[in-house]
Amino acid sequence: TRKHPEGFSLISQKDGSVITFLHADTMLLGRNHQGKEYFAAIPQISRSHAKIEFYDNHYRITDMNSSNGTFLGVEKINCKMHPAQSLKDGEILFLGREAFLIQINTRQKYDSQKDAGVFVKIRNANPENLIGNAPAADADHASERKKPYIPAQEFVCKNCYNYKSEIKEFTCPLCNTYNS
Predict the structure, then answer these.
(1) Which of 89, 122, 151, 170 is 20 to 30 A away from residue 57, measured at CA?
(2) pTM here?
(3) Is 80 exceeded by the pLDDT of residue 105?
């Protein structure tokens, strides 16, 4: 069966925050439009930065005369000079100097009436989740937990990022890199 997009997510390459946009045929990104909850704190992103359109079963982006530009992919294709560039899953989108990983969200069934309008959901990344080493919350006590988990001082391997040490200078046992 053919999967239809239910929207897309932009994952900040700066802090790992995930901004999820539900499907719409047309939407504007910027400090005064969709994503404003996150974009408002980034002065390099314009009030009306870029337009996303859904056409021929994929999302396309065009720069809306933003001050710092919209660029797609590692080649940094200029979306003002070359409008309607296709958003591809796993590609990098630059809104000004801010880099975001594109994640196209799909599902089996598609109901355009149900999803009319746009909803933006932002999830801030937890550095422990990015490394995959945070303790799991006990299901029985999850509602009682009021303070976020704050790990003891830990140092992460600068090469593989998969090993933590409580000692600042260490040799990573996974990749044998000396960290100082």
Answers:
(1) 122
(2) 0.61
(3) yes
